[in-house]
Automatic annotation (TrEMBL):
Name recorded for this polypeptide: Uracil-DNA glycosylase-like domain-containing protein
GO terms of molecular function: 4 iron, 4 sulfur cluster binding; deaminated base DNA N-glycosylase activity; metal ion binding
Gene3D superfamilies in UniProt: Uracil-DNA glycosylase-like domain
Highest classification ranks of the organism: Archaea, Methanobacteriati, Methanobacteriota, Stenosarchaea group, Halobacteria
Polar residues bias: start-end ranges: 1-11
GO biological process terms, semicolon-separated: DNA repair
Domain Uracil-DNA glycosylase-like: 30-161
Length: 210
């Protein structure tokens, strides 16, 4: 089932539940990309992965651009860095609201935004979830798989692993500032492997065939 929308940014018209930014700053960085994508890239918040100026996830910051570059190399991204064209890829944050520079979301902040993230994730209904960093990975594994209690939150070990979820395949990505030699090449190779397979698995089975 396809979403009937041509909106690239915030295709479902979400409204943030709080605004803690000055009057002249952006309230939130909404989901962005192809609303019918098979791949859903999930970051932490705008202070980490960017977008406070552009309004686009995975822009501006070194970490955000490093992730964007991986997906550019694997054919999902083209065009400018600040307003890229995405094909078969949707990007969003577990915490979409912007905070003043230097501030980090609290546990309550994440909880307040969980229902918004969940609604958008289920509306996109992608096959492959790609959380970036420990915060996003922990949330995705807890909410969309039964695997979290069996896995240590060790991003060096989880990086680029294919983990079966409840109707999804989860492929965690280590946050770029923590990448060791070979981490970038590993996630590129994993994405290319998935693209070469029959990844459009039946919902609820979440296995790769091919």
């Amino acid at each position: 089932m396809q979403n009937v929308t041509d909106r690239t940014s915030n295709p479902f018209g979400l409204r943030p539940p709080f605004d803690r930014t000055p009057p002249d700053e952006r309230t939130a960085v909404f989901g962005y990309g192809d609303a019918n994508a098979d791949f859903h890239l999930i970051g932490d918040h705008p202070g980490v992965h960017g977008g406070k100026r552009t309004g686009v996830p995975f822009t501006e910051t070194d970490a955000g651009l490093a992730v964007q570059d991986v997906f550019r190399e694997t054919g999902f991204v083209s065009g400018s860095q600040d307003e890229p064209d995405l094909e078969n890829l949707f990007c969003s944050y577990v915490h979409m609201c912007c905070l003043p520079n230097g501030h980090q979301p609290t546990a309550r902040d994440y909880d307040d935004l969980e229902r918004f993230f969940d609604a958008e994730l289920r509306a996109i209904n992608a096959h492959i979830l790609l959380p970036v960093g420990a915060q996003a990975t922990d949330h995705v594994l807890q909410q969309y798989t039964t695997q979290r209690r069996h896995l240590e939150l060790d991003m060096s070990d989880l990086h680029a692993r294919q983990i079966r979820g409840r109707g999804f395949m989860v492929v965690p990505i280590r946050n770029p500032p923590d990448w060791d030699e070979g981490d970038r090449e590993t996630i590129v190779e994993t994405l290319e492997e998935i693209l070469a397979s029959d990844y459009r698995q039946t919902k609820g089975v979440a296995t790769l065939v091919g």
